Structures are given as C-alpha cells and as structure tokens.
Amino acid sequence: MSYKLNKKLIDLVPYDPITGTYDIRLDANESCFDLTPELREKICRSIAEVSFNRYPDCLALRPTKAFSELYGVPEELISAGNGSDELISIISSCFFEAGDTIVNVSNDFSMYEFYAQLYEVNVATYQKEEDLTIDPDKLIAFCREKGAKGLIFSNPCNPTSLGLDREAVRKIITSLDGCLVILDEAYMDFWDQSILSEAGKYDNLIILKTCSKAIGLAAVRFGFAIAGRTITNAIRAAKSPYNNDSVAQTIVSVMLSEKEWLKQCRDTIVANTRELYKGILALNEKYSCFERIYEPCTNFVFIKTPDFEKIYTFLLDNSIAIRKFRGYIRITAGTAEENRRVLAVLDEYFRK
C-alpha cells in the first residue's frame, strides 16, 4: 500500500526566499551592520568555553538574563525560542485547539496564518482600512463577532511599516476578555510605542521579540516571548527542552550585553531609514512614480506601485534585492552607501 500525505501537508510548498548573490540585499529587513572584528573575537573566546559534549541550558538563563537587563523585563517573564518562528509555532499548537478561531490581520506576517492552519486552528482575517491602518474598535468588534480565542499581529507591522500607539494596543488587550493577544514587537526597537514593560500586567498577552532585526543576529535564530507567569510557565513546559543550542546562547548573551553598540546601530538604522524615505519622496516628487509611500516606524519603507514587478526585476538586474508584494514593494534600509545606490538605480529606472 502506498502512503499518502494528509490534507494539511499535501499542498504545502517550502518557503522560497530570494536565492543567489547580490551586491546589495535589502529584501529581508535584516540589520545592515555585521559584527566588528572586536565583537567577533569576543564571541569566539566565549564559544571556546562551551562544553560541546553537554546539552545546552534548557531555560537559556544567560541570554534571558542579558535580555532582561537590556529591556528591563523580569527574567521570570521571559521564554527563549529558536527564533520567533518557533515561538509562534508553539503558541499556535499549544494554546489553541483544533477548531478554535484565531484572528490575524490583512497585510501582516504570513507565518501567523501558516502555523495556525498547520495545527488546524481556524483563521479569520480582519481587513485593515484602505490606508492599511488598524481601527482598534473595528478589530475588537471583529474578534468578538468571530468568537476568537486568539489575536495575533505585528506592531509595528511587517510589511506595511505602520504602527499602533500604546493606548490603542492597551485598548485591544483589555477589551478582549478570554482572548489571547499575541503581539509581535519585532520592529519596536525602531519606534517608541512598546508595551514590553507592561507584559506582566495582563493575563491574556504574549509579546514576541527577535534578535534578527535591531540586534543584528539573523544568522543565529533566537527570539523571546514575554508574558505573565502563568503563560510563561506554560511556554517553558511546552517547548522542546533543548531548543536553543549552547553556541547560539553564547553569541546572544554576548551581543545583548553590548548596550552601547546596539544603541549606536539602532540610531544609525533609524537615521538611514529616514534618509531612504526622504529619498523616495524626492523621487516621487520628481517623477510622480508611486501611488503611495508609507511613512515608516520600522527599518524599511513600504511603497504602493503598479510597477512592483518591473521595479523588482530592474533592481535585481542591477544586483539589488528588495521584496515585492502584489501592488507593493518593500525596501529595507541599508548603509548610507547602499541607500544611495538603490535610489540612483530607481532614478535610472524612472528616467528611462
């Protein structure tokens, strides 16, 4: 007898990122800063002390402590994961049962819906306003109408680059009794509306943080979930016992302790994003080439354009990778020189 995949798997296709080598990569919202030689040496010295024949610390206490000291969050409210993706998977599979409904929002991180559907959780999608903003009252009403057991969204949002202020987020959390709110603050390091310090106040809130953006460790795969004690204990119990390897824990512990370096990188990325945004505005004033340019509170610029496919291809042909969506393009802020190059190539495209 031949084995057949079940209906959850039969139509799945592997994640397909941009492959190939490009001079400039502005497609994945990574930090434009690699580690300095001094930081590499410091990390290498720490890795040399790892006992490779021993299992890693199952609670990742050293990086958790470093995260706690960097962000001012109690250690007992923090769970470490193999990137935010693993934490989203754990939450989707363990905090909801088959047939439950979780609400996501349109134009948001695609993996929220992917993991929910993989674990047979129903997904109801709230449609944002025409300008891609979220109306908190409408979102609350939508969750109640759908009998949602959960709500998940990023703030600031990937890919739109827009955000909700603290008061709006607090209103959503406190208005949804019995509904778990999963708030992904992956890009909040570039904005000032975090409610991370309030995570322990709510019994229906999980905040996700990543090391792949402002921290600049996309290669390491490390993320954190911050929640009240009951939820934190549940996450720690449900996750794989050795989900964060010792090498990754060592690297993250070192990097999260580099507060001044991280602040300098963050400030420069914010400044570079503003300059990229201004440059794109100037192109639009010159050529009237875009339908809309969204003012970002992230490390990327989101643009509405019917030429999304042509622009994307033209940039690839010039060894610059960005991200395309139907009707939109997303450009991560790079170094000052990378930004100048992408603006020059865009100018060449529209001049032609």
CATH superfamily of the largest domain: Type I PLP-dependent aspartate aminotransferase-like (Major domain)
Q: Using only CA atoms, what is the Rg? A: 21 Å
Poorly predicted runs of 5 or more residues: none
CATH class of the largest domain: Alpha Beta
Order of helices and strands: EHHEHEHEHEHEEEHHHEEHEEEH
**Biggest beta sheet attributes:** 7 strands, mixed
Q: What's the overall geometry?
A: globular
- How are the strands ordered across the major sheet? 2-8-7-6-5-3-4
- Portion of residues in helices? 25-40%
Number of folding domains?
2
Strand content: 15-25%
Work out the helix count. 11
CATH fold name of the largest domain: Aspartate Aminotransferase, domain 2
pLDDT averaged over residues:
96
Structural class computed from helices and strand pairing: alpha/beta
- The CATH architecture assignment of the largest domain turns out to be 3-Layer(aba) Sandwich
Number of strands: 13
| First-residue to last-residue Cα separation | 60 Å
Describe this structure in words.
By secondary structure, the protein is of the alpha/beta class. It folds into two domains: 50-257, Type I PLP-dependent aspartate aminotransferase-like (Major domain) (Aspartate Aminotransferase, domain 2, 3-Layer(aba) Sandwich), CATH 3.40.640; 260-351, Aspartate Aminotransferase, domain 1, CATH 3.90.1150. Helices cover 39% and strands 16% of the residues. The chain has eleven helices and 13 strands. It has helices spanning 37-47, 61-71, 83-94, 111-118, 136-145, 166-175, 229-238, 246-256, 259-287, 308-317, 336-351; strands at residues 24-25, 78-81, 101-105, 122-126, 150-154, 180-184, 205-210, 223-227, 292-294, 300-304, 320-321, 323-325, 328-332. Strands 2-8-7-6-5-3-4 form a seven-stranded mixed beta sheet, with helices on both faces. Strands 9-10-13-12 form a four-stranded antiparallel beta sheet, with helices on one face. Helix 1 packs across helix 8 (246-256), helix 2 (61-71) runs parallel beside helix 8 (246-256) and helix 3 (83-94) packs parallel to helix 4 (111-118). It is globular and about 60 Å long. The model has no long low-confidence stretch (mean pLDDT 96).
